[in-house]
User: Fold these one by one.
Assistant:
Number 1:
Amino acid sequence: MRDGHIHSPFCPHGSRDSFDKYVEKALRSGYRTISFTEHAPLPANFEDPVPGKDSAMSMKDFENYLETVNKVRDLYKTDITIHPGLEVDYIQGYEREIRDFLDEYGPHLSDSILSVHFLKGESFWHCIDYSPEAFRQAVDDFGGIHSLYSAYFRQIRHSASADLGSCKPGRVGHMTLIRKFHHLYPSPEGWESMAEESLPLIKCSTMELDYNGAGMMKEYCTEPYPPSFIALKAHETGIPLVYGSDAHTAKGMNAGKELIRQDLL
Ligand SMILES: [Zn+2]
Ligand SMILES: [Zn+2]
């Protein structure tokens, strides 16, 4: 019983729910291990493309976040294992900045995730899970949904194979996040093989896969990231899957659990 992907009051686009609230919910849900994986500060020279610039924790809050998670970990250590971690963005072209950050702070983290939220189009950077409108703009900027998907899965592959130093996060985050609005903007034909192509690279880099229930709760997605046929394939490839609620509220924990194949965990 483990949840490897939980946000915190340090998330600027999340809720103010306290760490205690998350941990109490975890205990009530029967978890033995959880990871707080707040959005890591973005590289200083990268401009957050979302209007509120609130995709990630700011650098000035970061040390306080680490201290607070460590306190919570120690406070509950007889009841539950709590990992201090981060959800780190893989951003193409910023590998050096990401590696420098991880070299410095990675030793203080024990379970982190590497995710792709940002893609560079013809004219702009896009945050692909921000809103249906922003997704639409990304489709236009990429010249169609096929190019957008193919760029997304290329970044997933790059994230798996990138050299981000010895503290590279050990798990690929929500590998089919690009499907968040697929009921509005249907996925292009052949997307399944684009997604599956990244599995050998994930295996090869000995990373795990975030089996993320949050997509289940999104009205235009209604499936986990990744959906079960890909989760099964990952499992058969020998990639360990770790359930993640991606909760941004204590209430959001256990998201999508009923559709997660427990036998693959
Ligand atoms: Zn978030
Ligand atoms: Zn994420």
Number 2:
Amino acid sequence: MKPGPLRYLAPATVEEAVATLRQHPDAKVLAGGQSLIPVLSMRLARPSHLVDLGAIPGLDRVEVSESWVRVGAMVTHARLLADEDAYAVLPLLRQALENVAHPAIRNRGTTVGSIAHADAAGEMPSILVMTDGVVEAIGPDGAREIPAAEFFLGPLETALASDEIVVAVRFGRFPERTFTAFRESARRQGDYALAGAAVAVTVDADHRIVAARAAFVSVTDVPSALDLSGPLGGQLLAKVDWSCIDDAVQAHLAPESDIHAGADYRRMLAGELTRRACAAAAADAMAAGAPAAGGNR
Ligand SMILES: Cc1cc2nc3c(=O)[nH]c(=O)nc-3n(C[C@H](O)[C@H](O)[C@H](O)COP(=O)(O)OP(=O)(O)OC[C@H]3O[C@@H](n4cnc5c(N)ncnc54)[C@H](O)[C@@H]3O)c2cc1C
């Protein structure tokens, strides 16, 4: 099928794009089009205008600072996946991005687009929440920052107004001696996950866990971080029994059944993937020796 009739616009500035959105309340922002174009083609949405961000300079940058990795609105998944500076300070980005769709989709689809789309089956919304990230938006009243924990309101629903544009997101960096891992399971590689889990485990110089958190894919309505420091805090990596997190993880999940998998199966899968991700992060910590002045892994 083809999209319904619409006008395509390619503004040269963010201000022009915002003014267009304000003028045409039915307009939609177009980034990589990997989620929006299928929706239009199936006529699930019929916007009057498409406002393409692709011609606006400056939205394609990845920047690294002491406390965050900032990703511009037109940075593709593939570009961020390949960014060595971002990987060096926040490996979780690459660990998760490797699981986002297929290379062809990652070459066009943007990380910010997947966050604005707010699909509970998307990997990057969960990573943004887990890193205490921030959404940078610009609208008719100027710029504002929305903490990731307040951005996602429900499946495909965010705190963004219809005349606002996300210009960038900032993923927070973890403390020193934090080790991360991401595990997911899909029916075929590159499909949306039946369930997925990201974990971050922070250890001291003696390999004792001082903090841990997790976030999930496809098993919660809205991406949210789960603090696992309670069950894991104080335990030695070499001796920890990861099943001690099961109750906390299961209480956090709210999976639903669909044609791909039942809720019970997703629940079981998410629990197992979380334990495996914890074990993988712990193995990395032990292999690295968790050096006192070690980098953020
Ligand atoms: C076959 C297939 C498999 C896929 N598998 C996965 C997967 O496993 N995991 C996953 O996470 N994703 C998956 N995707 C989706 C992919 O990651 C998309 O790239 C992403 O969801 C949207 O990014 P985009 O740049 O294409 O956004 P678009 O499709 O251009 O836009 C998506 C939505 O976000 C809005 N939007 C986009 N950018 C902005 C902005 N800067 N400001 C305000 N609103 C904005 C648009 O208006 C639209 O509503 C898959 C897609 C396909 C087609």
Number 3:
Amino acid sequence: MENHNHPFYNPRLSYEENYQKGPFGDFTQKPEISIVNQPSVHFLGNKINLPFGIPAGPLLNGKYVKAALDWGYDLCVYKTVRTKKYKCHPLPNVLAIHPEHRLSENVDTVLADQNYDLPLSITNSFGVPSFDPDIWQPDMEDAVNYAKPGQVVIGSFQGTLGVTNHIEENYAEAARLVDETGVPLLEANLSCPNEGVNNLLCFDIDKVERIAHAIKNAVPDKPLMLKLAYFKDNKLLYSFLERLAPIVDGFCAINTLSARPVTSQGKQALGEDRPTGGVCGDAIRWAGEEMVSRLYEWRANHNEKFVIIGVGGVNSPEHYRTYLSLGADAVMSATGAMWNPALALQIKKALQ
Ligand SMILES: Cc1cc2nc3c(=O)[nH]c(=O)nc-3n(C[C@H](O)[C@H](O)[C@H](O)COP(=O)(O)O)c2cc1C
């Protein structure tokens, strides 16, 4: 199906231009229809309208968060921030990808180009840029205050390797700075590369446990969620949950699946020094759904109470319902919402 929507993030422009000039498309104005909400869903101490929103990434700053709140996304994550400025990768940062078969978890090679047809899968490669806290702190605070009753802004953050001797100290500092904005919920992004090994931080259980403790010591009174990648292995996932479930309040899954995007000539599509990129959108829905089922099953078997946010490939009311039926307490969409800003309103309408 061809896509006539204008995404609210323009993949042809640099991250900085999107930050300064965006959001684009429908997010430049308020929606024409409004849906009467009744905040009735309990979510980590907050009452919200609909447990649906946009995860960390596409909402680059307060302008994006405010537009998303106006368009009925009741859980909005402000893009992952760091304790100091961190540069974005050069263009391209977003490309459409076209897997021939179901995308696997084994870093498949996939065709990448600028044909953003629906149902859409993309590769995103930003390197988690951030501005300095003196820029993002007042901006995040402003976005937090803009939320109406029944809406919540979540602050996502991560530590930066090399800033402190131990990464957990920098995670704790980032959490403290995010907490100062008054944001009601925290989310630590762990789906970033781990030191020295070709692996993600969330697979290093000892380190994640130290990070979670450090954040909880720094900000004891605020619910903390961890953003997870797809775990291939149940044994690793179960060990992770045994150690982390007693410390934190929720898990958001998943981030992206890794792939090798190539051009039609077979060249690396993201440039010479970026052979791989994270894939999100339609192609990873199976992985998001599977992780939610496994988290739910483990939680039920262990009588735990953490919340589960299901993320990955949501672009219709039906996908939202499926995630809830698999055990998600809340659902979020990044790629789907970027190309269809009315998604939250469509889900609310479908539920009326
Ligand atoms: C443009 C873009 C930027 C992203 N940046 C971040 C980020 O800064 N931190 C993070 O935890 N996840 C980030 N993500 C991952 C999303 O939060 C989400 O986990 C992923 O896109 C899968 O959801 P989707 O299939 O609905 O896109 C980003 C995704 C996109 C599309």
